[in-house]
């Protein structure tokens, strides 16, 4: 089997309705924009697709200029080789982190469809359902956060992760108030969205330690592994690291070796080099008896959650008040394993006819 052609289809992606905000200093939710679908076709009629919800024109430029010449004529089942080639090309191109794994996702989709299995089973299935963690956007007040938490619990969610304002004192008061509100036994986590320097990250981390939070995620930008090493030495709350930094498993290895990954590491198909990169990270973490928590609510991550033993939650984004439960989450707060072959594309978008078989 050989790859005969690559296509990049631009797709209109509506922004969230209602729009939402993140911490102070960050843009809020994206407006209507243009995403892209990569489609890989072969001489035996097998196809694979991968979806990028952002910057479709950038994706198309990289496909047309860089990826197509590399992939035409290649064996689509040699995913390891093609993953290696993507990193070789990245050496001179510095591809956006969200583009780097697109080819890999499409190749896994192609292989799984060729054998009639969902990707999570081809990866090596571990479970058929997993609890969803309610991961909030940033709401306006402590009182609104507590109201949102009550709604999440009523909808079946069994864990909550906060994205707050990026002011360590204000965020600390929220974290303590939520702990008091839900009780000692309800699992809570906090994500700083890289809003702090080291001194303030330490101050907030000490509060989270006292409040028995499950983990403390990305309080600082992840360029300095040493800063995280120093943070780990000063706080008791477990650190969840390696979410947005470049380098996939190679970067994650440095976080682990430094002793900074006290709670575990993040992994994802979107930001860590497709399914191949995500599974490398999961196995690396497992060798050190660490967790590899899957980051973000996209369809490929439903598959990763079913394939990675040392992952505990599916991250389900809560973007509105009143709270709307994500469609893939049931009334008991569980996400169930996909059953269709391959990965699939998000529903309810206006795709061209060539992609209809993949929705």
Automatic annotation (TrEMBL):
The keyword Metal-binding applies. One of its GO terms (biological process) is carbohydrate catabolic process. Its cofactor is Mg(2+). Keywords: Magnesium, Metal-binding. The keyword Metal-binding applies. GO terms for molecular function: hydro-lyase activity; magnesium ion binding. InterPro entries: Enolase-like_C_sf, Enolase-like_N, Enolase_C-like, Mandelate_racemase_C, Mandelate_racemase_N_dom, RHMD-like. It comes from the Bacteria. Residues 142-238 form the Mandelate racemase/muconate lactonizing enzyme C-terminal domain. This is L-alanine-DL-glutamate epimerase. It comes from Cryptosporangium aurantiacum.
